[in-house]
Structure prediction request, 540 residues.
Amino acid sequence: MPTYLRLEVVRMFRDRRFTFFTLAVPVAFYLLWASVFKGNGTEPKTGLDIQTYLMVSMASFGAIGASLSTTGQRFAAERASGWLRQLQTTPLRPWAVVTGRTVASMVLALPAILLVSLVAVAVEGVRVDPLHWVLMVVLMWIASLPFAALGILIGCLAGPDSAQPITLGAYFALSILGGLWMPVSQLPSALRTIAVWTPSNRFGNLGWTLVSGHAPTATTALVLVAWTAGLGALAIPAYRRTLRAR
Amino acid sequence: MDAITVTNVAKSYGTVRAVASLDLTIPAGQTLALLGPNGAGKSTTISMLVGLARPDAGAVEVFGDDPATAVARGRVGAMLQDGALVEGLTVKEVVGFVRGLYPEPLPLAEILATADLTDLAGRRADKLSGGQRQRVRFALAIAGAPKLLVLDEPTAAMDVESRRTFWASMRAYAAGGRTILFATHYMEEADENADRIVVMAGGRIVADGSAAEIKSRSGTRTVRFTLGDQSAAGLDLLEGVTGIEIRGTTAILTSTDADATTAGLYRTGLTVRDLEVRGADLEEAFLNLTTDQS
Prediction:
């Protein structure tokens, strides 16, 4: 499994498109929104100033993007090309492939979280207690797990051509419902009810609560754990099934 | 010890019966060719041997274990028909990676040399030509020094020269006392490279033996002679004749009883010159065996 993990991380960093979309895009969006909304005071619900609030939003946006793009479409393409079947004729077991991919996707979500929060501190002068900052980075990193599981599930179920639009659709839906582009309070009321149960909203919440020095609620933790367990429980059998289907 | 035992195995995909009551035992150290037309059940059999498909009925054992266990223990290496290469890695990296998954792999330099890849080691594997990619896939199959090597139509997409070098590599690997099973629909590949040939058609084994045995078992002979400008009318009525072909000035009769056909031929009053009676070649034997089934 560690060998497979290393292989996947090396492959992703060689992909310029991946590096651009998961690192440059969230940083650029952060800088753009931070300058557009500069001086608008604080976000009412969390009490955070706009620059800090957006730091968490865009770090979440970047991490979700990295998790989904290391899995979804790539996994579907490798499935279609026969590489995954080839892998299953080696001693590497199906659970190790799914676990390796999930961990790889988490490893690749970390740079997005780190880079956005470093730019926020260095360029926008965001001031966060170092301990809170570290807690935020580490816990958000772990909490990116359900998005990796979602990506693998899409990669197992969708064809190589439909996997990309499905992944993008899920990415945008999760970002909007999660309140990462605009606060959830700005959404229509029907969407607001759904929003609080999305993993992306809880993901953002985790970050916003941690930077403001509070402990995340048990509901937030439970929702994230439930999504991880549920999607993981679907992804492993889906993967086994794809190996057999011919 | 037997490398593979397949006992009364059946496998269907939906309503399509891919394999029907298959029995096959392969002793360790044998090189066996699985010969048959498309749809004969070769790939399905291979999928079950490497643990990618489970039989609906019957049992498959690889070195006494369930195939998935044998694969997990690093005893199997496979080159599947659709096993593409992963993007973004060099030949050396991808071979090194697969090598690292096995408990007792071959040295990297030896793998690259056997697969004739030493000069391509630093190149991106996904940017190679079709024939070169097949060599990389062969390298992946042998990387772990598996006791059983399974190859599904390994020379598809190779030119004549690549095929020749490929089979030389395969024989070099087999020489270490390893068991090899390869599927092909090229008769001459089976004839030249296998100790034993198993012919499949319609999901069943229709013949099993050495190349010579299979040729004789099909039971047909060809009777050829120079017909010149004489009429071929009536030749198809001779005793034993099952087919007739005129190639230029030569007549070729396929017969199930060459003696009777020859005797009858002299009674026709034709001038028979350059008479030749031959056993069918492997290709004809193969066609005879497989067309009965479909």
Q: What stands out?
A: The mean pLDDT of chain A is 86. DSSP finds eleven helices and no strands in chain A. The radius of gyration of chain A is 18 Å.
